[in-house]
């Protein structure tokens, strides 16, 4: 039985397992929690969040860390007394919540759709003002990793940030992404590697 867990999300690694396990997950704004010591992918998207008993863990891990520059500015906006003070039975009253259905509900099953509608009703019953069926301009482009430029950004930032991460390790024979690729190639018979994974990392921008 796991009371709480902490994960790093670049593109769904907190929200997706939370959704699949019917657990509460918080993906903090980048900089609210430190990423120091975490294997990086994209500095502009990586963030450390919680799954289950989320707000208590968030209060414990939020704040400034000299080893993660992004926390310097974000720490100024942490409310005095932390976030658990907002865990109130009437906490939804007066809140304004927007609901975007398209294209996210187009591929879900009937049970998921019923659960979604139930949650929207609960938000309203709790006193929130729900703005339903909002539309986001250019959502097809934004949600497409290639057309939005996210795919290129992730490859470029991963190469730079993982090299910086490996370089600062105290005890490790692996110091660069090139070392990782060389290891994969040397032990390719016993290591599972996705097609073109080494080439993608090696020749990505920057």
TrEMBL record:
One of the Pfam families matching this protein, by short name: Amidase
Top-level taxon: Eukaryota
PANTHER family hit by this protein: AMIDASE, OS04G0183300 PROTEIN
Domain Amidase: 3-143
Protein name: Amidase domain-containing protein
Matching InterPro entries: Amidase_dom, AS_sf
């Amino acid at each position: 039985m796991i009371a709480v867990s902490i994960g790093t999300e670049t593109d769904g690694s907190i929200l997706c397992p939370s959704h699949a396990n019917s657990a509460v997950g918080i993906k903090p704004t980048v900089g609210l929690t430190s990423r120091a010591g975490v294997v990086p992918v994209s500095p502009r998207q990586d963030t450390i969040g919680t799954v289950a008993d989320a707000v208590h863990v968030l209060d414990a891990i939020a704040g400034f860390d000299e080893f993660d520059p992004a926390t310097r500015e974000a720490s100024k906006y942490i409310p005095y007394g932390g976030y658990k003070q907002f865990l109130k039975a009437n906490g939804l009253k007066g809140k304004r919540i927007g609901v975007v259905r398209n294209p996210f509900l187009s591929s879900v099953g009937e049970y998921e759709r019923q659960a979604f509608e139930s949650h929207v009703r609960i938000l309203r019953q709790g006193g929130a003002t729900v703005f339903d069926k909002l539309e986001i301009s250019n959502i097809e482009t934004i949600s497409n990793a290639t057309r939005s430029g996210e795919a290129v950004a992730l490859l470029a930032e991963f190469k730079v940030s993982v090299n910086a991460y490996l370089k600062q390790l105290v005890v490790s024979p692996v110091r660069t992404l090139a070392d990782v690729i060389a290891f994969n190639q040397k032990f390719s018979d016993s290591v599972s590697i996705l097609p073109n994974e080494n080439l993608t990392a090696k020749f990505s921008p920057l």
